[in-house]
Amino acid sequence: MAPIPTPPAEPQDSPERYVGLEAGQAERLARERGWSTVRSLPPGAIITMEYRFGRLNFEVRDGRVARAWKG
């Protein structure tokens, strides 16, 4: 049987730091800080609930990050 892969470490970064930033600026900053996937979503978007290491999610309202979370 193949070994279970070890997920890569997530960036040592707090999602709360992105709240209030302009969405494009927040996405660029997140990628610079090492997030492999950055996902911007409208309020109330229907999304899957699987946890992805290295993914940062933004809820964007009126062009600004209203909420941010890992996975």
UniProtKB/TrEMBL annotation:
InterPro entries the UniProt entry points to: Prot_inh_I78
Domain of life the protein comes from: Bacteria
Any Pfam family matching the protein: Inhibitor_I78
The protein, known as: Proteinase inhibitor I78
Record organism: Streptomyces thermoviolaceus subsp. thermoviolaceus
